[in-house]
Request: fold
Amino acid sequence: MPAIDVHVHPSTRGLDSDACAYFKRDLNEVPRTEEKFAELFARHEVKALLIGWHPSTVKEGTRNSNDHVLDLVTGYPHAFAGVLASLDVGRENPDRLAEQAGALLRNPKVKGFKFHPPDQGFYPNDKKYYSLWEILASGDKPVMFHVGFTVLGANSEGGKGIGLDYGRPIHLDMLARDFPRMKIIAAHPGWPWQEELIGVVTHKKNIYVDTSGYLAEQLPELFQSAIRGRLQDKALFGTDFPYVDLVRALESFDKLGLKDTVKEKILISNAARLFGL
Ligand SMILES: [Zn+2]
Reply:
């Protein structure tokens, strides 16, 4: 069955070594050229949304800047449906951020935004960012926030300065309350706060969730039953490629034994509707 993968990091500009180590990725399996990267998704009839990475914590090169992911979408439209753009909330001043957000919202290849509160060191419900959220909410493009555990800094002293608390799902609850028009996506099942996440997604109609960072059968059980049931219209298929392999993710999704109608929603139609694809 064709699919939309809402959570893809291009593997064309280097890989995160902490993440590769954590997922025990065989680096020979990861396509490094743009052509091979696009070809993998095209071959499996999966349209990817590519995540732009905020530059604050990237030490080497430009990595997956917004410009790089936009170029990939321009070059390989059969494989890539658009980008989730990043904004450097920790570094830029509010006026400059507003300007950048406006320009990105006007770009039709930008289908939404992605933030990583633990890595960027901010609370999504901090009032300091409300003027930015105001702009993004008015643009009607979904905004994704990383929730739960992160492989970034995992198993290193002090977690390389990363605090997991910024990624608690509950911080999205107030945000969703204060911006009811903002379509919010919680990226990942939120472990070790999967119960908190399910509570928040069930309560706030404008919060969605993706399945990324896990093979489907390894998703927390509670999360599996939620997406099978009450949350079947709000769950989106995502891999977290290249850290989770696309082919294995698709195969594992089949093993969940979902009803065809539910499977179709999670693999395609929920994302197609949400992102207007
Ligand atoms: Zn990711």
The CA atoms of residues 43 and 131 lie 42 Å apart.
